[in-house]
Every structure is written in C-alpha cells, then in structure tokens.
Specification:
Blueprint lengths: L3 H15 L5 H30 L1
Helix pairs in contact: 1-2
Length: about 55
C-alpha cells in the first residue's frame, strides 16, 4: 500500500508530465501497480543473484 503523501506526489507528477488530472482512485491503482512491478523486479534480481552464487 502506498502512502497518501506519495499518491499526492504521483498525482502531481502525472498532471505535470502528462497533463492528466486523475481521480485519486486511479492514482492509487497506478501507484500500487508500480510498487508491485518493482517488487517483482527486486525478487527476480535476488533470485538471479542467489542462482549465480550456487
């Protein structure tokens, strides 16, 4: 779960970079999706490093 403060920052970034003023529900979906994506990448990197050590 992403904090309200970070969601507000993400909303500002989306508005500044893409000209889209999104509802907080949509911003929350995007933010949580990004967190999930990077969590998956971190897990994959960890597993890759573990396999290289073995």
């Amino acid at each position: 779960m992403v904090s309200q403060q970070l969601l507000e920052e993400l909303k500002e970034i989306i508005k500044a970079e893409y000209g889209q003023d999104l509802e907080m529900e949509k911003v929350s979906q995007i933010g949580n999706g990004l967190v999930g994506y990077f969590d998956l990448l971190a897990k994959m990197q960890y597993e890759n490093n573990q396999n290289k050590e073995n």
